[in-house]
Write a structure and sequence with these properties.
Length: 201
């Protein structure tokens, strides 16, 4: 929910598919429970955890407390920007502000006890439809022991296969602007659905 009018659209979507969707954008300790009660399966938080660009354990504890300490209801978004060959830092405020948290094994392990999964956009690849950050996908598979969804640059079914191969199936890929339902020409939603079903069979 990154702009005006999105809250009502989100509520409409939750009414259409209760307990089937995750909601993010402006989530904090005051409204997290409200969105779960509105039908969200999980809430996603990023910027709230980084006041002035610095990670706040106190704020993370407050959100989890608001959710009844049910970490299964919480997704931590660690969307990031690359800083060097093997270095990524969490970015917030539509990825314009670089925070003090580097994504590495230490930070992943520090946060895992507080959430059920991670959402990680590679902001430098996001929306370009020019391919994924393969090195980041490899590292996420090594570092994380809970589900991870990667976003950024996904273009086609081959990228789904690449992420599966690089991560040994531990990291999931989202495809956004390349999907035909979003006006893209790279891949059809129906083809992605068939690919997903094939993995489960």
């Amino acid at each position: 929910m990154l702009g005006p009018g999105n809250e009502e659209a989100a509520r409409e979507a939750l009414r259409a598919w209760p307990d089937g969707l995750q909601v993010g954008g402006g989530i904090n300790d005051k409204n997290a429970k409200e969105w779960i009660e509105a039908g969200a399966n999980k809430v996603i938080i990023t910027s709230f955890l980084f006041p002035d660009g610095k990670f706040s354990q106190e704020r993370l504890d407050a959100v989890l407390n608001a959710l009844g300490n049910d970490k299964e209801r919480l997704v931590i978004d660690l969307s990031c920007r690359r800083r060097g060959e093997d270095s990524w830092f969490v970015a917030m405020n539509k990825w314009q502000t670089i925070t003090d948290m580097e994504i590495n094994q230490e930070s992943i392990q520090k946060l895992e006890p507080y959430c059920s999964e991670f959402l990680i956009h590679a902001a430098d690849n996001e929306g370009l439809q020019k391919g994924i950050d393969e090195r980041l996908v490899e590292k996420l598979a090594q570092w994380a022991s809970i589900p991870v969804t990667y976003a950024g640059g996904g273009r086609n079914l081959e990228d789904l296969e690449t992420v599966k191969r690089l991560s040994s199936g531990k990291v999931h890929l989202t495809i956004g602007s390349a999907l035909d339902c979003f006006g893209g020409s790279g891949v059809k939603l129906d083809d992605c659905t068939r690919w997903n079903r094939a993995q489960a069979s």
